[in-house]
Amino acid sequence: MYTLAIDLGGTKLSAALIGEKHDITQRRELPTPASASPQSLEYALAELTGHYQGKAHRVAVASTGIIANGVLTALNPDNLGGLNHFPLQACLEKLTGLPCLVLNDAQAAAWAEYCLLSDRFRHVTFITVSTGVGGGSVIAGRLLTGPHHFAGHIGHIQADPHGPICGCGRTGCVEAIASGRAIAAGAKHDLRGKDARAIFARAEQGHLQARQLIARSAEAIAQLSASLKALLDTECIVLGGSIGLAPGYREQVEELLTRLPPAFHLPVYPARYRHDAGLMGAALWCEYCAT
Ligand SMILES: [Zn+2]
């Protein structure tokens, strides 16, 4: 039994075959169509899935956005442009003739990381800090998706009522303070206009403002982790994303957590699947749902 796993991100579209031993083969990648029109996405999906014709028994998709009943929507519709309300599941079923299951990408990654830790923990929360901030929680061995498929949009928990306006319309969300986009937006003087990657490089050279911007991000993620422990009694945090996995960042979050009262302490592990988290999470979730 092979699963054709697909990861639809804001910038790239990847696919691979995942076997029963969870081996990833025949990985392919395309840029997500820049025009973001339904027709261009359908064309790109047709091109991608055409390579796997006759090789898989089912399709599992991890996608950006909110996936409600197989349809792609977004908290901030500007993020998806013309792809808002794209019928992802129906489109892939039509293209492949196979049953298809679609899941939010951070929820998929949370499930993948949980599967690696399930011999030790039953309550695991995954946080990705990248261009945005997202996540997913597994509680008592069950992935939380929610009645509106909104569970895990933890980047939109408020961190500072006087903070910047977030893309979702709310004020001071964690995402508006901790994400790569927020780190870049907060840069002033000689760092103005630099992206998060450049700011991390300057911080490593000891640049004070760069270090402060990263510390502010790590503080928001540490406080978010503590809030999630209070809410869910999660046993650990798994931190992923390009910022979450940047050298020294996770250690900063962990150190900031130790300054809080002991009830809020919890271990913070690095995500292990990295760029395969969406593909693997969707395939593992599909396998779990089929049993
Ligand atoms: Zn928000």
Summarize the structure.
Helix content is 37%, strand content 21%. It has 291 residues and is α/β, with parallel strands linked by helices.
Q: Which SSEs are present, and which pair or pack?
A:
Layout: E1 3-8, E2 12-18, E3 24-31, H1 38-50, E4 58-63, E5 66-68, E6 71-73, H2 88-96, E7 100-104, H3 105-117, E8 124-129, E9 133-139, E10 142-143, H4 175-178, H5 180-185, H6 196-204, H7 208-232, E11 236-240, H8 241-244, H9 249-258, E12 268-270, H10 277-290
Parallel strand pairs: 1-4, 4-7, 8-11, 11-12
Antiparallel strand pairs: 1-2, 2-3, 5-6, 8-9, 9-10
Helix pairs in contact: 1-2, 3-10, 6-7, 7-9
The structure holds zinc ion.
The site of zinc ion has 6 residues, from loops.
Describe this structure in words.
By secondary structure, the chain is α/β, with parallel strands linked by helices. The protein folds into two domains: 3-105 and 275-290, Nucleotidyltransferase, domain 5, CATH 3.30.420.40; 108-271, Nucleotidyltransferase, domain 5, CATH 3.30.420.40. It is 37% helix and 21% strand. It has helices spanning 38-50, 88-96, 105-117, 175-178, 180-185, 196-204, 208-232, 241-244, 249-258, 277-290, and strands at residues 3-8, 12-18, 24-31, 58-63, 66-68, 71-73, 100-104, 124-129, 133-139, 142-143, 236-240, 268-270. Strands 3-2-1-4-7 form a five-stranded mixed β-sheet, sandwiched between helices. A five-stranded mixed β-sheet has the order 10-9-8-11-12, sandwiched between helices. The two termini are 13 Å apart. The model has no long low-confidence stretch (mean pLDDT 94). Zinc ion binds at residues 156, 166, 168, 170, 173, 175.
